[in-house]
Predict the structure.
Amino acid sequence: MASLLERLQAGAPLSWDLALVTDSLDDAGVEAVTAARVLDPARVLVAVDHDTPAGTVAVAEKQRKLLDFARDQGLPFRYGQGIGYHLALEGGLKPGSVAVCCGRHAAVLGAGGVLGLSLPPKELKTALETGTVSLPEAEVCRLRLAGALDRYVTAWDLALHLAPRCRGTLAVLGGGGLDFCQRAAVCGLLAASGAVTALFTEEPLDGAETVELAAVEPMAVLPGNFERIVPASRVDGLRVNQVFIGGCAGGTLEALRQTAAIWRGRRVNPYVRVLVAPATAAVYAQALEEGLVEVFMEAGALVMNQGCSACWAQSQGRCDGGEVFVTTGFINCPGWAGRGHNGIYTAPVERAAWAALTGSLFEN
Amino acid sequence: MDERFESRVWRLGDHIDTDVIIMTKYLAKSSLRDMVPHLFEPLRPDLAAKLRPGDCIVAGENFGCGSSREMAASVLKTAGIRCIIAKSFAKIFFRNAINNGLLLIECRELYENCREGDTVTVEVGRELRCNGRTYPIPAYSPAVLEILRHGGLVARMKAMDKSAVGAPPPENPFRNRHQPGRTLAEQLLIQNTGTLVKPGDVVTVRVDEAVLHDIYAPYIFRQFRDMGFDRVYDQDKVSVMVDHLYPTCIDDDPRCFRYSRRFQDEYGVKRLCAGEGISHQLALEQGIAKPGKVVFGTDSHTTTYGAVGAFATGVGYTEMASIIGSGQLWVRVPSAIKVVVNGTLPKGVFPKDIILRVLGDLTAAGAIYKSLEFTGSAIAGLSISGRAAIANMAVECGAKAALFAPDEKTAAFCGVDPAEFAWLRFDDGAQYERVLTYDAGELEPYMACPYSVDNVHPLREVEGTPVDQVFLGSCTNGRLEDLAAAAKVLEGRRISPYVKFIVTPASREVYRQAAELGYLKTLIQAGAMVTHPFCGLCQGRSGGLVSAGEVVIGTHNRNFIGRMGSPQARTFLASPAAAAAAALEGKITHPGKYL
């Protein structure tokens, strides 16, 4: 089989390896996707992962349609077992594979070397029926990460550093020695800030630009979108109302270990609402095994069920008024976590964990 | 208060519960006016828009049953409802209505003889006239009348002399002495008041503990200040429980979190539990509930504390404001029903099945304002958790309190010397209005079927019903032994692939122990979504709402129409083992074969 880079180069329709259908779809999207006659059920995963357990009756109705779709066509189905991307990777989706879905963070699959393509619902329907997908027309941006990040600089900072360069491109990254959580943060945030998708590869990257990791500094992005990327010092000292550690990068085992290391023997600030959510049931079980969950509970944080939780924020971790919500998640739209609320600050695990303890955001 | 008026009739049925009056999801809204358009939404979504100031509601039995939410009364008052005429009223709703100056009239005959749109003439305390007929109605007790004359409890408390708050109790000649010929409830109230009270007496009790909840915090705060209080009666005896709205699930929730904190900061309340678990479990774990205490909480399931021999019951937010200001509350001494359960429970039959059977036999209005007192060898054999599950649900038949005589288990659980409460015990000479006697060996798994808690059937009658969602949790059955029973059923197994399975431990301590004993891992690996310990789905605000046609098996305490989402969904209440077995098979099944 040709390498993924060669397949990308060829530009022809790709035969995808996995189609992921989740409840991130709106009602029209569910209608479009579930109208598909699926060509190869074994290559599909229907994972209800965003708003679990269902926050409203309307959401329950939508999820019901996905369940019926899976049951009627014999598709693998998981309800509330964790974030679909991570379930796919845990299920053995190999580096070099191609996955299609409608979720805006499909690039997170790139942390596992998988090309994750986010399609509009109608195109996903076509893909489900044909087994193939056309590549988006986008520059392939090859980046080789060299050196190492400074001690207080994180993958979140790296992603914000790279964001302007990667907008509109299909970013392929190599090197850097990042762990799974860090790779998920880079890929997810690049997609959130406008890259078509992003992935890490072990394949040789001919003609790649070099990114000196040592040059990356602590960064922040102001709420509302991913346009206003600023030095982290701009948000230093912000008083915080809610902290979420979870989502595609913050819910990984690495992130939970990191959080536990910071919180062990400490208590979260009583004026801050603090939520932690493991990405998947397997991560949750492992975190229990390692005693991480005990640390979270002792610290006074809430431990949520596995899944998207307060990154999706539609029924877990709502905010109001002028509240400041620090999250390891990748969504910061106005009104997302509460009507009229616009105070979502994406932050690295360390800074989120410290904000939970101190009640303030620090620049590093 | 007008002594005579005319009013247009809206006619509703029996058992109009507080969830039907105003759904839980609207309770945290910042004003009562914002809730008015949602009155009676699950039952008659078009009704709220038609209500006009001055209208009245005529209903059947047990109006206002269910939760202690005062909004059920205060939103009706805000909508301008002049009075409610029903065959009978649930006890907490009755008090809440009076405290809001909302007139309630008990009349058994009018209901059958009026239609919607009729005009009824009311002469308060004397009679009703409608369609040419006259119906006599009872006069109010002096305590009630005084509140109504003030237009509600806030004005009544505002006028109160506050200088006596916190004065030491008078000499009590009956203290720590067993009173022969008395029910447990009477003994507790005699111990508290120092007066030889009898059922029907209205007495003022000294409040040993007051437990208030985040969902009502902004309202309690406002009423408290409007009553003219500037300090709580005892900073050690008031507990703020942030258990309904944290994690924040709806936009209205963060405000309640902030108000709960403000309560602590402004009034120096010592105990605030945020995200620690459900108040009723915490009350047991932290000794808020102890034998002999009198406890009030802003949640109807406060009856749970009777498991350790505390006289405990739910109140509304206005009454709570008056309690934390004054340290006292008027109580009508309840008459009592004794429930005797002897023998040994068969395999697969749990304390939940005992209380379901009792609720089915007594019916939802069968113990309004009664003390339900449990005894017998099977009861003696139950753990405090098992007793708590029973006491918890006593409110579902209208009981004011549920009581168990404290024993060695109680002493060990509460860390007290049995000699301290030797006075509190069953007395053969006590007068019980009714005695129900059961042989435990003849009990079987039961289910409360839609849409009422007293629609109880043996599980076998509904066996095989396909199930879409299973909920294991709540102040009824979210304790360690409940998780243990479910883990035993599910050990090494996977739940049915299309079942949604939600597990919510009752407290951090329960969670911690369940983690340590491996139950959580077993449940997660079986396919459960284990949530943080809090009230969770039981409230029906979020976290597992269901769509039309779905079937839910829950270990909680209410299966009212629409409480868990769509009014076309159906909820069955059962024991944790029966719930786990349903998750496993995807249909209702007897849990015995997995135990």
The CA atoms of residues 45 and 234 of chain A lie 42 Å apart. Chain A has three domains: 15-127, 140-214, 230-358. The mean pLDDT of chain A is 96. Chain A touches chain B through 50 residues (CB under 8 Å).
